[in-house]
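Re: the pair you flagged

First of the two:
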Amino acid sequence: MEKIKVAELFAGVGGFRIGLTNASKKFDVVWSNQWEPATKGQEASELYVKRFGEKNHSNVDIAKVPVKEIPEHNLLVGGFPCQDYSVAKSLSQSKGITGKKGVLWWEIHRILKDINHRPEFILLENVDRLLSSPASQRGRDFAIILASLSDLGYAVEWRIINAADYGFPQRRRRVFIMGYHKDSPIYNKIKKYSLKEWALNHGTLAKGFKIQENKTAFPNTLKIEGNLIEVSDKFNKKGTFSPFQNCGFMLNREFFTAKVFSDYNGKIITLGDIVLPEKEIPEEFFVNGEYEKWKYLKGAKSEKRFNKSKNFYYPYSEGSMVFPDPLDKPSRTIVTGEGGSTPSRFKHVVKTETGRWRRLTPLELERLNMFPDNHTKGYTDIKRAFFMGNALVTGVVKQIGESLINQLKD
């Protein structure tokens, strides 16, 4: 395979694209889609076009994109929003399978189901709670995703990866889902191994992100039974815990899963490696005159609070956060609300060499996600922070891309 043609869904400001093209020149993004629902502005899409050009970029609601408009590709990627994946309508109804709300998983399913040339590979990213949602039926959402991909001819490997566990500068836990279609060259290789062997030793994620040998917890092998409606209605109906651990592999709806532990002894990039010298920081990022407000929000609390709408007091408590953020460790997960000067419990605050406190700049947030410097330049501090809070650590995607290339070489 000379080129691996990539279609990027829910592209944001191009995290998957940056990670994959940094991994190898073999990755060629032939189509991308970014649409922000319920907003007038489409700044993420605008920025994507500024950085990568408008050729084959779609700024249309993915639900309105005909599959015939998506060019043939080998790898479909996307960080799809975590919503409700339950099946609300029967397959026999005119609109087919839909979710109760926000149906974006089912748009991925629609593309994979209806496209003329089903991509050999898929690489998806989501929040780690996907494996245990919803609270009323633990693991159901992920079971629906696995079952629907299996029915479309895919074997699926998954792994929750905390970027900081492998030397990257941010503690960001995400589940990565790697699928191999039965017509792909890797699918034939899979059949040589047991489900457990592929999950722990031979898979793309397994080879890219080493785990401690002979150390697993809660190993289990199960099968997802029934059509998608039955999976939605019945999967783990009486279970207290999700059957899905942080690592696993599924083939023909049968899956092995276990809790695994990272094995990394290389360089660790810390927040201190990322931060700029104090002299380069604009004054607007310094915390001036509101130290007590920041301390209160970051500190432990046990107090009564008043609900105005219901006119009653209620007890409220929360633990303290490390404050200011330590420079000798990777950063906490950056969030969409990092921008702006308003004091916040969740924004990062660091202490400078002269003892002043300050927020992180957009450039530093970009570096925590391993984006090129000033990738988001041209937008407000608040918007740039929003872009990065929604993004991923591109170094993780790069490492997955390199592992996939090596799988295809073997």
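Second of the two:
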Amino acid sequence: MKKITISVLMLAIVATLLFLPACQSMSTEELKKSLEVVDIQTKWVSKEYRAWPPKLVLVPVISFRVKNISDKPLNYINFNAIFRFQGESKDLGSSFLAAIRKEPIMPGQTSEVITLKSNYGVEGKTVQSFENNPYWKTVVVKLFARSKGSDYVLLGEYEVSKVIDFKPDEAVTPVTEPSEQTKK
């Protein structure tokens, strides 16, 4: 009975040692060397809009893909974006996303598009009102990634373009039924 217990214990220790490397988390340096940010796009999108009284709140957005440049699958990657007006230290807004979860990114593959949108932005009345709005200044976004067990890694700092991706609702004209005389 003692021999069986010792054998089972030894087998459990060997199995643990074999599977332990697969459970290890990625270090900060490994994470930084494992991914490359590609297909970066920045713009401004609507957070709030109403036609009357006119109000339009635009927020900065960054979209990108991540390419796995390592020889191991990438999984459990969180992204954080911090948006600031250029030259200022106070944050305009931020965004967090636990993006890569169920489906790992295999070596050499690229992720789906990942989009991070600031929670704060700039208010105006119409799209045209932003052209001369003194509060609509240049914004930069710092993009960070983190894997379980690692610290945040700065992936890059990007200037947000002044492209506005918003079209106001078009006025709807009521459809009237043709009159009896029009039908004849």
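The beta strands are 35-50, 55-68, 77-85, 91-100, 114-117, 122-124, 139-147, 153-159, 164-165.

-B.
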